[in-house]
């Protein structure tokens, strides 16, 4: 398998962490989807990363679909429950973490982080709206985690992979958001996850 992605993308990191936790072999191909000469669209018509290219050349995307597929390839380190409320809970945690990331990416885009727009062409109202989503997501994460050792209870799961990648990216791209001080339980979780080889080897920056 070949994983196409950027080292700074939290969605790519989620897949890389799952690959490491599942002990799956793959080739990592770095690609910047924002570069004018990017070849990402040759595998993913949406021009987004991550993109998993199978041995036969078929492509799988986006990150949620990829990690769902990867979890079926090996019984090692099962990350997603097979059915029922437990499965729905894990997938909801993933949706929450990805939603925080989506808002962060939109805020960076509007601020001109990629397209070089002038100050007059940016909407502070839109940026503030995305920050509101990030703060709301962080509050929900902290409330959902409570004093549990992991997001979905006593076992490490995709919930923690998704939340850990979201928190790591916020620390990387938005250090001004003081989630560690406001939500010490999230900080404890992030620090615990950082000790895992899968997270340490994929840290952005």
Automatic annotation (TrEMBL):
Q: Which CDD domains match?
A: GST_C_6, GST_N_3
- Domain of life of the native organism: Bacteria
Please report the stretch or stretches of sequence annotated as the GST N-terminal domain.
Answer: 1-78
Residue limits of the GST C-terminal domain? 83-205
User: Pfam families of this UniProt entry?
Assistant: GST_C_2, GST_N_2
Q: What are the record's GO terms for cellular component? A: cytoplasm
Q: State the InterPro entries in the record.
A: Glutathione-S-Trfase_C-like, Glutathione-S-Trfase_C_sf, Glutathione_S-Trfase, Glutathione_S-Trfase_N, GST_Omega/HSP26, Thioredoxin-like_sf
GO molecular function annotations of the record: transferase activity
Point out the signal peptide segment. none
Determine if Transferase is one of this entry's keywords.
yes
Q: Which UniProt keywords apply?
A: Transferase
PANTHER family per the record?
GLUTATHIONE S-TRANSFERASE OMEGA, PTHR43968
What is this protein's name? Answer: Glutathione S-transferase
Q: Which organism is it from?
A: Xylophilus rhododendri
